[in-house]
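User: My collaborator and I are trying to settle a disagreement about how two of our proteins should look. Neither of us wants to argue from intuition anymore, so we agreed to look at predicted structures for both before our next call. Could you fold the first one, then the second, and keep them clearly separated?

Assistant: That sounds like a sensible way to settle it. I'll keep them separate. The first protein:
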Amino acid sequence: MKLTEKELEALNLLCHDSLTDHGSAERMHVFLRTAQNDVQRLKEKLDIDSWEDSTTSARVAVCMEAVRGKLLLL
């Protein structure tokens, strides 16, 4: 799976820095809605909507799938 440079940046801010949408928006110098859209695109690309474990938040699931897919190193 290919992610854009912007999506990789959003993924790193989400997973490595544990930033909220607000924090990511500030760090990337974009509007809050843009940061939220970035996270939503990551969820779609990583197929998080079909995540079956209801005890895991979608944001944690994004990080777990990114590590599993070798898009992100811990």
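The second protein, kept apart from the first:
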Amino acid sequence: MRRNWYYSIVAIAFIPLLAEASWAQDAGAKPPKMKMTTEIPNGITTPDDIQTRVGDLNFFDGVPDADSAKKIYNLLDFTHAYQAFMDGTKIASMNGIRKGILEFGPANSTAVLFEELMDSKALFLTANTTSVYMFSWLELGDEPMVIETPPNVLGFINDHWFRYVIDFGNLGPDKGKGGKFLVLPPGYEGEVPEGYHVARTNTYGNWVIWRGYQVDGSTKQAVNATKEKFRIYPLSQKDNPPKMKFVNASGKFMNTIHRMDENIFNEINNVVQAEPLMGERPELLGHLAAIGIVKGQPFEPDDRMRSILKAAASAGSVTVKAIISKPRDKRFYWYPGESKWLTAFPGGAYTWELDGVSLQDVRAGFHFYATGITPAMALKMVGKGSQYAFTYLDSNGNPLDGGKTYKVHVPADVPAKDFWSFTLYDNQTRSMLQTDAQFPAIGSNDKSVVQNKDGSYDIYFGPEAPKGKESNWVQTVPGKGWNTIFRLYGPLESWFDQTWRPGEIELVK
């Protein structure tokens, strides 16, 4: 019985309660006409007997019978759980990041460095293979915490709700020189000393991430600068800061990815229990409370609710996959109607708010696919930061297939002051595609890449390298789909005004 009910819930995942409902004629006798009786306009009353996708619903003059009420509340709980999945994916994602970092050591005293770059052994959402990734977990108490940052990095802090706090490094207030940042805990009203770049966060837990640059193919300079400069300590210990532990995570397994099944709700609950509610929207917290995720209370769903959570997670997971791979919103596309290349920040809005409206679907899709929130990823900054275009599809709109060979043409004069690259990702894990190569990527920093006579490039993707194209080829895996991100570091004006654009990914027949 429970199995049939579960599948009936899944079947109505995307359909309003009364969609395609047929209205049965009321069986009861009509009430007599009274002295004050008036004609009721159409659309105010509804029939008492309704046939819907959740079954037959029976009311007595607007009041459901017991069986109908159960069906309706099952649907209502499913709706809350489904929306909690969609809006709460970002929270679960940050929970996964925290858990992954703390596997290497305690908060505040551990910095995780990919000294030989991050490779495909790490389960980390859409990381690249060229930046020197480094991160730490900041856990505040009652007093402010100091973060000393290294020079020449792209860094930022996101809070536990996955909201932007502050940039540091080349796009931060220290202007790439490194500096001392003072992070104030939630509700802090004490003194704020001078001499710091001050940031206020709404959560005690915060993700600190920064990316260094290779110099002549070496990570040494970036790694050494971090080991020399990076520190986290309480303000009260500023005169005698404790030592940091630096852990090299290159080549090691690491998992920072959130769950996509019903256990995602446990991950969301972890954050709700750990943080003040002031940092999250009441609407989302309301959806969570409706399914039993309430701060200060145990999250103990019964059998009925567990079935609903399982169904909602199934529905939510396929929704975010559809949103990110085949979006219907034209604002998702760099070149609407002309290209399959997508942007995760329509309108350049890193908050996913445009014209006073929240782009909730886009936000959910992003947090399923990628990680890290900073204006630098979305705003137009010529020659600074980075820009991204991604796709799951070839030029014909078909999913990219690891058993087939494709080619993409990169026209001459690529608008990247620093460099450009393609990185391939697994559709399921959204992490680097695990192939025979350590780094499933290619770009202008690769000395072996062959440039055409006109200054353009032809890049190939497939299970085997086309003859003579080995230097311009990235391996894929038969039986697996894949997607790719085209990155521009130091993007130039021709990218923003779209006088230059990448070619489509073409199937090689």
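Some points you might bring to the call about the second protein. The two ends are 50 Å apart (CA to CA). Helices lie at 2-11, 66-102, 220-229, 264-274, 282-290, 303-325, 360-369, 493-496.
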